[in-house]
Design goal:
It is a single chain. With about 700 residues, the protein is an alpha+beta fold. It has 3 domains: about 190 residues, Beta-lactamase (3-Layer(aba) Sandwich); about 210 residues, DD-peptidase/beta-lactamase superfamily (Beta-lactamase, 3-Layer(aba) Sandwich), CATH 3.40.710.10; about 280 residues, no CATH class. A hairpin with a 2-residue loop joins strand 13 and strand 14. Helix 3 runs parallel beside helix 8, helix 3 crosses helix 14 and helix 9 crosses helix 13. The longest helix is centred in the N-terminal third of the chain and has 19 residues. The structure holds 2-acetamido-2-deoxy-beta-D-glucopyranose (NAG) (2 copies). One 2-acetamido-2-deoxy-beta-D-glucopyranose binds next to strand 18. This is Beta-lactamase-related domain-containing protein. Pfam families: Beta-lactamase, BTRD1. Keywords: Signal.
Length: about 700
Amino acid sequence: MAKLSTLLGVFVTSCLLLAGCHGTNDEFGTKFQQFLDEHNYNGGSVAAMKDGKLVYANGFGVDRFNNAIHAGTMFPVSSVSKSLTAVAIMQLAEKGVLSLEQTIFGKGGVLHMIKPYKKVQDPRIHDITIRHLLHHTAGWDLNKPPIYDPVMNSVYISRGHKVPDILKVMKDTAPLTPYDTMRYMISQKLDFTPGTKMVYSNFGYLILGRIIEEVADTGYEDYIKHNILIPCGMWHTRIGPVRSNAEIINLGTSINGPNGPIDKFEDSDVSLYDILNPEDMDSALGWQSNVYDMMRFVKCLDTNHHGKLLNPTFFQKLLLRPVAAPIQHSDTWYGAGFKVNSHSAIWTLADPHTDDLILYHKTKDTSTEKESHSVDSFVFLLNGKGLQHLKHKAHDLVSFVDVKAVSHPFYSDLSDIHNSTGYKDVIIKYKVDEHHLDAYVSALKQENLDIKWISASDRNGHTCFTLLAEPFDLPAKYAMDYIVQHGLMEKKLLHHKIALEAEGYNMTFLQNYMSASHDSRHAFLAIFRKGAYDEKTHMKFGIHHFPRPYMSLMGLYLEKGYHPLVQSYIMHDDEEKISFVFLKRTNTPKVNFKTYYGLSSPQLQRTVKQNGKADRKLSYLDVSNVYGKPKFSAVFTNENAGKWVFQLGMKEASMEALVMKKQKFGFLPKIVIGYTDKDQIDKYAIYLEKSSVL
Ligand SMILES: *[C@@H]1O[C@H](CO)[C@@H](O)[C@H](O)[C@H]1NC(C)=O
Ligand SMILES: *[C@@H]1O[C@H](CO)[C@@H](O)[C@H](O)[C@H]1NC(C)=O
């Protein structure tokens, strides 16, 4: 056991070296930096996986705003948006909600309610199916005048190109929405008969987004979030930020030339994302992501690696060669949302208008070699253009990645503080936005990490969570499963508790907090764990009790042998409210405890000391903003009291220094909370305990 522990410690240290170094300690890094320099890229980030295990993630150079790029840097991922959209369509087909042969427009079409702004001129519009849209064979050719790529219409107009102004023609008001574009386009002639030819189409994928909204009856972004991002732990990925109109006016000079708008646009160094509202091209080009999430995506997709997005049959349907389209290159074709070759590789390249990227994944090892020495998935997100270079060099470059690197690169993505005492990893994450919490928790679970503490706080009007996580320490026979529910009102909390208990879960954590994500309401967060309480454990809980009745209730339960596990305190409509969880284990001695609420920072500091002298350790801590000041709620118990350290009022850097210093002496963080002090500065309180294992 001791030997294994030491080994683990060594691995984790080497991971820190690898992930933490900016630049070029590794052979791949050196080659990649050379590649960037030679081809005039300003920077980029890269990640690589082998057998579903992330073996490399790093960033180099600078982004468009001259900020240093790191592995977590967000990039617009242009056409990967189409891959997400295609997977969502396939999921809906798998569920039987739609069929790929369904038509889109006119009577019986999925989007029959979309009316042409004039009459339909071309009856073939009514033959377009979902499958045609997926494979870019619907009949639109973005190289053909007068309209070229309709998704780029406002871009062309803002740059002074001679194309019909769709809004003006339809006498509509800005902005040009996907619905406007559809109404216009179905009144125009198709460039070819649906199913007979393949021409890349942003517009087709814009329509697929509307189909998802129609059949799933939810917004496109929301659908992707709940059905792809959350299950896959892609906690960074989102539709890009909306740019202000002012930026459109400041674009470089417009170009009028004979070559048509597309070529000219490619020459320009103005990003597409400066002009178009990402939400208006969402399902075709709108997403932003980073290399960690891109690797999570392919890992989650491939059913050869236990992917859970699609079943194997529908995963294979993504890769199918379209039947009707003429074969241009016999061994590569457009599958649904990906390019595919006959060696079972799938990939996505950047759109011509955007920065370079390549997302590549080999779905099966078809090589004869037993053990391949190169990675099977990789992603490059680059700042700059030079598509041909990247496409041709990417495979050479990744051959320099050391696939045997034993590390946990995903830990660097999931933590702000991560180190090992030599036998255990502990990670601390400061600010996870409530909107990303579900996907973040899912990412933690994928790395086998268990939440040990979580606490909400308001950060500039955003509700953020501070977390502490460790690898599961249960023997394998126990269910390593937990569910974090947040943003719950009273009724929902009770509802979830009953529903989850029926599935064998117990509530092991409860917190009442102000949720900016839920209209600043007093919401609950609860953690449920499978099989957490055996039949000897009894639990009582209550929500929103006034302090006095709470204290008498506690007295009553104390008599019966209960002790508090949770005592969440909040100021609610000018009244103090307490929510609690009490536990009792039969056949065990009573737990000696003391509880406090409404403590100021100095009071808390003193209280921790006094209880320490009486051999009671901090077992619960919570904070609430009361008229602009932090007020704490604390529980102390005498269970296994040992050596401890407590500090509050710390900024991120000093907390990090404390954790690192104390870990050398065997202290592990047990409780961490973030809060805003009376001067509105972000602060942290942390409680560390000397481990009895050492
Ligand atoms: C824990 O969950 C099980 C399974 O639903 C349930 O039977 C049991 O009563 C719960 N225990 C407590 C203490 O709530
Ligand atoms: C991790 O902890 C070890 C001691 O356990 C220490 O020597 C090392 O410097 C720490 N690593 C980092 C990156 O702080």
